[in-house]
Design a protein that fits this description.
Layout: H1 19-22, H2 36-41, H3 48-59, H4 66-74, H5 81-85, H6 92-104, H7 111-124, H8 128-144, H9 147-150, H10 154-160, H11 176-180, E1 195-198, H12 203-207, H13 209-221, E2 225-228, H14 237-241, H15 245-265, E3 272-275, H16 278-285, H17 287-290, H18 298-306, E4 308-310, H19 311-317, E5 334-338, H20 341-345, H21 351-358, E6 364-365, H22 381-384, H23 386-403, E7 407-410, H24 413-425, E8 433-436, H25 437-443
Parallel strand pairs: 1-2, 1-3, 3-4, 5-6, 5-7, 7-8
Helix pairs in contact: 3-4, 3-6, 4-6, 13-25, 19-21, 23-24
The structure holds iron/sulfur cluster (2 copies).
């Protein structure tokens, strides 16, 4: 008998569920309107309350078929909008991740599936050299011009699956030579506003390197001395969301140790660890929680997390950016801002990007309806639940269109690709674009040549 009432070893997996957390839920249903999957799927089992109840019943040994829980949890975006909406402070993220972790021991996974996941998680995302090779191969592929010829072919669809839908939306990557010439450190211009370690991320640095460079330049312009977090690696967010806490903790420790070394060698220390990807930032601010049960790391992890900032927070608090009057695109300068769920619901950063956009001369920001709702990107959700993610995206795009905006600004690479996909689905290519906040701000600065 397990402590929750299950009566044999087949129930051992349920001991990993965050059972105690489920008691915080008073079944009020205030979270239901905030949940994108409840909106598009319309089932209680695909709502936050339904998911919490399934976890509770599984932990109590009352769930006759674990697949019910797996289906419900797999269809959750992990956007945590329900946490923000909940009046009793239910820690849905902890319940969700415990279920992901527990289900790993229940569901059968093919050897190939296991090997692919292990390969990506342990040997691709954490390795800068592998990511650099991937980025260089993508640059070569883009340069060859072969993409448009292959797109739509059967071999293309069979090889890439849903991934193929995102390929046309990747940014044009810099050449290996440009990559090698990027500045490693930037000293502040004007009055100094602190020293920052820039968290470049894994895929972010491989596929959105120009956004990272623009981010460092903006930090410099606002008065920060900034250098990439030397020895930093993947934040571990994808690992944690897939239930692989062992690897997530290992990556967290590597990042903490890298920061401590950089901090010790900087005279006066590092003031902030700055990131520009909502999903990574949310993981970094939760390192304290992730390592809370490891005595050697708990305090160090909390100290690390206390220094984590989204770039918009540092820019909004720093010296003024050298903006100039922005020229209209498509005859207008109306922009709308698609929030990153993890930035909103975990980091609680909401007003700074808005203030920054509003401070650009000539730009009109129009907020969309249901601005806090997920776009359906959610890590790799849009790859593994492509159809469901597109249903959520279509709802989002209707709200985007109603703003009359020609530019959708985002703060996360996944949201950026998803919004570009949405623009294509709406047949708005060439008339609307999605852009990262750092690129939009840099483009509005007087040093930029692209908006002249
Ligand atoms: S995390 Fe998002 S998708 Fe999942 S239950 Fe909460 S609101 Fe719904
Ligand atoms: S998670 Fe919070 S908002 Fe949702 S039903 Fe439970 S108590 Fe109510």
């Amino acid at each position: 008998m397990n402590k929750h009432g299950g009566d044999d070893d087949a129930q051992a997996w349920t001991r990993l569920l965050a059972y105690e957390e489920t008691f915080q839920c008073v079944q009020c249903g205030y979270c239901l309107p905030a949940c994108p999957t409840y909106e598009t799927m319309g089932k209680e089992t695909h709502s936050p309350r339904g998911r919490i109840n399934l976890v509770k019943w599984a932990a109590e040994g009352k769930l006759t078929d674990w697949r019910l829980l797996a289906d419900s949890i797999d269809n959750c975006l992990g956007c945590r909008a329900c946490e923000t909406a909940c009046p009793t402070g239910v820690r849905y993220g902890a319940i969700f991740e415990s279920a992901k972790h527990a289900l790993q021991y229940k569901r059968p996974q093919s050897l190939v599936g296991k090997a692919v996941q292990r390969g990506l998680f342990a040997h691709v995302f954490p390795r800068k050299r592998v990511l650099r090779t991937l980025a260089n191969a993508t640059w070569l592929y883009q340069k060859s011009g072969i993409g448009p010829k292959l797109r739509g072919s059967r071999i293309w669809r069979q090889t890439l699956g849903p991934l193929g839908a995102f390929e046309p939306h990747l940014p044009a990557l810099p050449s290996p030579r440009e990559r090698a010439l990027r500045p490693k450190r930037r000293t502040p211009q004007g009055e100094a506003h602190g020293r920052a370690a820039f968290f470049a991320g894994c895929l972010m640095d491989a596929l959105f390197e120009r956004t990272n460079d623009n981010s460092m330049r903006l930090l410099q312009a606002t008065g920060c001395e900034v250098a990439p977090l030397a020895g930093g690696t993947c934040c571990g967010a994808l690992h944690a969301h897939a239930g692989d806490f062992l690897l997530a903790r290992e990556l967290a420790k590597r990042n903490i140790a890298a920061f401590e070394e950089m901090n010790a060698s900087a005279s006066g220390g590092i003031d902030y660890i700055v990131n520009n990807a909502g999903g990574c930032g949310a993981m970094l601010v939760e390192y304290g929680h992730l390592l809370r049960e490891e005595p050697e790391w708990a305090e160090r992890a909390s100290a690390f997390s206390s220094k984590v900032r989204d770039i918009s927070q540092v820019l909004a608090a720093g010296g003024p950016l050298p903006f100039r009057e922005r020229k209209p695109e498509q005859g207008t300068n109306i922009v709308t801002y698609q929030r990153s769920c993890h930035m909103t619901n975990v980091q609680k950063v909401t007003s700074e990007p808005v203030r920054l956009l509003q401070s650009i001369p000539g730009v009109e920001l129009r907020e969309m309806k249901e601005k806090d709702k997920c776009c359906g990107s959610a890590g790799i959700y849009n790859l593994v639940h492509h159809r469901e993610a597109m249903d959520i995206l279509d709802v989002k795009m209707a709200h985007v269109r109603n703003t009359g905006a020609v530019t959708v600004v985002t703060t996360n690479p996944g949201c950026l690709l998803q919004m570009q996909m949405g623009i294509s689905r709406e047949g708005m290519d060439g008339r609307m674009r999605a852009v990262h906040l750092a690129d939009y701000l840099a483009d509005a600065c007087e040093w930029s040549t692209s908006s002249e």
